[in-house]
Specification:
mainly alpha
């Protein structure tokens, strides 16, 4: 397993972009959006603290302490930029046959037949 040091989302993104040979100028918009979102993710706790302090006791509505949109959106940007490895799929077992041995033999024989017109 690779050894990953703790780093900010923005720093990890920059490292991934630097290692990506396939990115070209046409990816600039998605890269800029991913950078902006990474900065927001890294600053979220500070932003929430500022908003809560700014709201005061009877001020603006309460700010949610968590953000359940930014990380999934960021992962979509990484996927669009092909900065996330494709998932490895394991072969899924098919359904278990309930046919009798005689029926299974007949089915195997039928696979070799062709329709003649």
């Amino acid at each position: 397993m690779a050894d990953f040091e703790r780093e900010s989302v923005a720093d990890a993104l920059e490292r991934a972009i630097a290692d990506a040979d396939h990115l070209t100028a046409r990816h600039a918009g998605a890269v800029a959006a991913a950078r902006a979102l990474a900065a927001k993710i890294d600053a979220w706790d500070v932003i929430v603290r500022w908003a809560i302090d700014d709201a005061g006791p009877a001020g603006r509505p309460a700010v949610p302490p968590n953000d359940n949109v930014s990380l999934p959106s960021f992962l979509k940007f990484l996927d669009a930029l092909q900065l996330v490895p494709a998932p490895t799929e394991k072969a899924k077992p098919g359904p278990t046959s309930t046919a009798s041995p005689a029926q299974q033999a007949l089915n195997e024989m039928r696979k070799g037949l062709s329709i003649v017109s």
